[in-house]
Design a protein that fits this description.
208 residues, two-stranded antiparallel ribbon
């Protein structure tokens, strides 16, 4: 292809501007992407890595235009494959007990029995731990109650001993006071008798 006697490169160009201004040609860099698999991906294989449409692989430098249809198609196929895998995994769970073979049904029942046994063992283990903790708590409360009772008994014993000593001391003081009062009263009586004996008013000795 030639224009005004000048040969142009085979790379597609984009013309910018209107009819009155001179036309400017900008080359478009071709996009190279890896081949996208169209077949359904099995559950055992790994999914391809997601591509960034703004920076696809194989393009070193971004110029005027950048086609991203292949990258979008790659990501869309990847999403579809992942959805198919998730759908298959979800429906494989309830397909066996209804539409599976006898071996698959028996294996499914065995898994259910094992799961129930595991749940029962975990429940019993939790109940045993709760009972053990409750028994330990009850033992701690009983020990604290016993210690409190012993403290109360010791306090009552100390108080009883103090009150007994207080009583004995009061009794001793009262007895000594009574004895002193008796002695003082007997001395006063002797003194009065002596006074009456030598008092000239009582010559006959009738006053005592």
């Amino acid at each position: 292809m030639s224009l005004r006697g000048v040969s142009l490169p085979s790379t597609p160009v984009v013309t910018l501007g209107n009819f009155n201004t001179p036309k400017r040609r900008c080359p478009i860099t071709p996009l190279y992407l890896p081949a996208v698999p169209t077949a359904t991906v099995s559950q055992s294989c790994m999914f391809p890595q997601r591509l960034n449409p703004l920076h696809p692989p194989g393009v070193n430098r971004r110029t005027v235009s950048l086609e991203t249809m292949a990258a979008h198609h790659h990501n869309q196929q990847r999403v579809i494959n992942m959805q198919q895998k998730e759908y298959s995994r979800y429906h494989q769970g309830w397909r066996r007990p209804f539409y599976g073979t006898a071996t698959e049904k028996e294996e499914y029942r065995r898994e259910i029995r094992q799961l129930l046994k595991k749940q029962m063992s975990e429940k019993w283990k939790t109940a045993r731990e709760a009972t053990s903790s409750q028994s330990k708590e009850i033992e701690a409360l009983i020990e604290a109650d016993r210690y409190t009772i012993l403290q109360d008994i010791e306090k009552d014993r100390t108080r009883a001993l103090f009150m007994r000593r207080y009583r004995d001391e009061n009794k001793r003081l009262m007895e000594s006071k009574w004895q002193e009062s008796r002695l003082s009263r007997s001395m006063e009586m002797l003194k009065e008798r002596e006074l009456l004996r030598y008092n000239p008013i009582n010559w006959s000795g009738t006053l005592k």
